[in-house]
Amino acid sequence: MLAVGEKNVTRRFAFFKNSKLPAQLQPNNRHGPAYCFVDFGFFDLVPYPMLPIMVVGHILHFYGLYLTFTLGLWNTLISSALFMLWGGLGITAGAHRLWCHRSYKASLPMRIFLMIGQSIAGQYSIYGWAKGHRTHHKFADTEADPHNVKRGFTFSHLGWLVLKEHPMADIKGNGIDFSDILADPVARLQDEYYGLCYFIFAFMMPVVTPMILFNESLWHAFLIGYVMRFVTQTHDTALVNSAAHMYGDKPYNDKLHSSENPWVSVAAIGEGYHNYHHAYPWDYGTGEQGNKFNVTKMFIDVASFFGLTYNLRQASQEMIQKGREKAINNNCTESDEF
Ligand SMILES: [Zn+2]
Ligand SMILES: [Zn+2]
User: Fold this and answer.
1) Ligand 1 centre from 255 Cα, in Å?
2) Which residues have a beta carbon within 5 Å of ligand 1, which is an ion?
3) Does residue 167 carry a pLDDT above 90?
């Protein structure tokens, strides 16, 4: 017997080629065989011009890359890289580890710094980002997961941004509590005035800075400081949803699709230890302690030294060992805690 809303899903997916509908419609069926077909679903594009924007954006991105190493100033590249780092920390240390997972606490100046960084990255507001990500954790690798990796690499990477959301993601996502995110005035104000934040921090600041400081041309500053930086960073983040859910070891819980992928950690400044992260999402390191490349963890540690971050949560070795045994014996899956 199908629940309310699932009937429509059935009808809708009847159109999809190769769709394995019954498996998709089981919200708890996380561990069925992955069926990595590429679900383009062109007729189900979002009603705004996301696909053309993405195509034009990528063409300009490659031209920006060409300019970066030919006519652009090296200082412009350095400026762009620094904005990318700030934007990266806004996503990893901010939207992800602070607001979405509450894995540590941060002082007001630090929250403002991270909010600006998160705006620079241009990946929706903190609230919008954390909403999608909590839904991803709660229903990872099912149809309620906004970027369900079982629909293939292309879909989980960026394809999900140009296609309409699967109804199950909406239905299941609505059952999750997100009120704590808007309880923080920094996140609430950014969400309320997101258009303005995007214009100032994601667009104006990275473009105008090399023009004022290094006398860079507007065209070069736009392509290198805005387009090239934004597209590169978006791919870096997307690799966590695609590559880190497909390629890598699963030492913490082999029932999950999420994997340990050190290469993704290089691109996404410490976010590639994804098998660990799905097992212990509330750990501020999003990876086991040790000699791992984790720029974001280093940043939070240094900030903690200066009192800007505190109450850092971390899984103990004993907890990790017990968690492994539980995963093997009880077939346990996602952590219920954020
Ligand atoms: Zn994930
Ligand atoms: Zn997460």
Assistant:
1) 13
2) 258
3) no
